[in-house]
Amino acid sequence: MFRLLGICALLDLVASQAVPQTIQLRSRIAPKEAAIRRRALNPVTVNLTDFFLGTDLQWFGDLHIGTPPQTVSVVFDTGSSSLEFASTLCGAACSNQIQFNSSKSSTFVDVGTTSSITFSTGVGVDPVVGANYRLTLRSARDTVAIGNLSAPSTSLFLITNQTPKFNIDPFSGIQGKRDRQQKKPGGMGARAQGLFASLVNQGLPSLFSLYLTPLAVGGAELTVGGIDTTKFSGKFHLTFASLPAGSGATWTLNSPQIFVNGKSSTTLRATRNVIFDSGTSNILFPTATADWSVVAFEDADKKPHRNAIYALISPNIVPFSPEPGTYGIACSSISSLPAQISIAFTAQNGQPFNLTIPSSELSVGPFAADPTICQTLINAFDGLSLVGASLLKHYYSVWDVGGQRMGFAAI
Ligand SMILES: *[C@@H]1O[C@H](CO)[C@@H](O)[C@H](O)[C@H]1NC(C)=O
Ligand SMILES: *[C@@H]1O[C@H](CO)[C@@H](O)[C@H](O)[C@H]1NC(C)=O
Ligand SMILES: *[C@@H]1O[C@H](CO)[C@@H](O)[C@H](O)[C@H]1NC(C)=O
Ligand SMILES: *[C@@H]1O[C@H](CO)[C@@H](O)[C@H](O)[C@H]1NC(C)=O
């Protein structure tokens, strides 16, 4: 899930990241003997479960909190902030979630700062309207373990209240990245923070990998500290692209062009930064990229043409007014539409490569408000280009914090 306070906050975020910063992997200088004694930690793989509601939405797995450990499941989210999960302080508002009881943990420390976060992409495929995805939090510290790797005194947030939109979640929380505005420590961002930073300090290689498979395929997993090469092989190898300078904690790659069914256009040949977000199911593009950009004299007939992504798929894909930002088309016609979207990137060796979303992803299922209309995968969101599960589930992805790069292998 991607958190955004508004366009001003985004601009502030970009401005504050303009100066490249050094990643501090160790919080203090260890004496030489200690460094020699320090052993490497082996990578650990945790199984992920697909939250599926007509379409693949999010993938979640287990973390173990406190002493003795209580297991909560969280979405491993590269696009949100901090580690937060339902607690017994949330009571009835979190009655569908497993709740962590801090009274049962001997290592729990209540920091006691209260705050709230609002997400700009939701758990489902529908867009966020107002503050309908909002969590109320209380800060704390406790031991957090993933697999057999354990990080003592890790900053976390107990969910003490949540909006009803979260009720359907089969998981208790979110392991996100660090949020710069709120200075909340997390762990899945492009800077080592929180749980992940603690494990890296203990000698774990500074990367993680995601295998986010569709429900029908199964076997989704997160490998912390390594790459599970059994998930891709033969002609499929990892292609790495560097994060652009100044991308801060956000997983972003620069893209020179988008192709729709092999075609491009003036609008789609623009350079854009694309955010990769494992916690969002849909794709977000600015309205002009998604839908309504009209460019004069693009074609031989010298008439103005719509030339954005949907215009190249079908003129019948139109905004679905009950849910601002979404688009739809009659379900009866959607399965026959070719809608292959390739986003071009540049590999570390300078060669171009595409990440491709197949036509089968175009439909994310019928709208509840009108089941004859099927929602299409791109939501309009001005100021942001962001890809989530509909792309990531077609690749094995490596999120290399230490190397400041991302790797992809087709699966
Ligand atoms: C939390 O744990 C304490 C200590 O075991 C117990 O007294 C309390 O009832 C628990 N709270 C809930 C809501 O389960
Ligand atoms: C964790 O388990 C893996 C095997 O799954 C093993 O290779 C590794 O050494 C273990 N790490 C620790 C810290 O016990
Ligand atoms: C993880 O999933 C694999 C199958 O994909 C299974 O063999 C293994 O037992 C699972 N591990 C755990 C800890 O559930
Ligand atoms: C990317 O996709 C476009 C459209 O299908 C194709 O023309 C181009 O050759 C592809 N680029 C690479 C490097 O495969």
UniProtKB/TrEMBL annotation:
- Domain Peptidase A1 span(s) in chain numbering: 59-409
Q: Which GO terms describe its molecular function?
A: aspartic-type endopeptidase activity
Q: Which PANTHER family would you find in this protein's record?
A: BETA-SITE APP-CLEAVING ENZYME, ISOFORM A-RELATED
Pfam (any one): Asp
Record family assignment: Belongs to the peptidase A1 family.
Question: What are the leading ranks of the lineage?
Answer: Eukaryota, Fungi, Dikarya, Basidiomycota, Agaricomycotina
**GO BP of this protein:** proteolysis
Q: What is this protein called?
A: Pepsin A
Query: In the record, which residues are listed under signal peptide?
Result: 1-16
Which UniProt keyword terms apply here?
Answer: Aspartyl protease, Hydrolase, Protease, Signal
- Please give the PROSITE patterns that the UniProt record associates with this protein: ASP_PROTEASE, PEPTIDASE_A1
Q: Which residues form the active site?
A: 77, 277
InterPro entries attached to this UniProt entry: Aspartic_peptidase_A1, Aspartic_peptidase_AS, Pepsin-like_dom, PEPTIDASE_A1, Peptidase_aspartic_dom_sf
